[in-house]
Amino acid sequence: MKAFNRINPHGIAYMLQEDENNSTHICMKHEDKFITVNIPITDVILAWQIWMAGAMIQDAFYFFSPDEREFIMTGITTEEWDAMFKNMKES
Q: Are 56 and 69 in contact (CB under 8 A)?
């Protein structure tokens, strides 16, 4: 199993791990939050390097959904966003 540590521009630390199915688990360090993407870890690592070099996140991680990109930018999951704005949707 391959594993790499990465830090985003906001100082949020992540651990990237690849499983036997070539899916990559992106876990926030020191938190119990993660996402799993069906992308090989080598592609994720390359995109992370491109992003850190100054590319826009949607260009570097073109293969991620907006929710997946949001998670690596802010550490906020889709479920957390939905909970935060639940009252606004009901209005």
A: no
pTM of the model: 0.87
Residue 48: Cβ-neighbour burial (10 angstroms; 0-12, 13-18, 19+): buried
Q: Which residues contact 87 (CB under 8 A, 6 or more apart)?
A: none
Task: Give the chain's domain count.
Answer: 1
List the domain range (segments joined by +) for residue 72. 3-90
Mean of the pLDDT values across residues 86-91?
66
Alpha-carbon span 74 to 87, nearest angstrom: 21
- 58 or 21: whose pLDDT is higher? 58
What tokens were used for 77?
């999951």
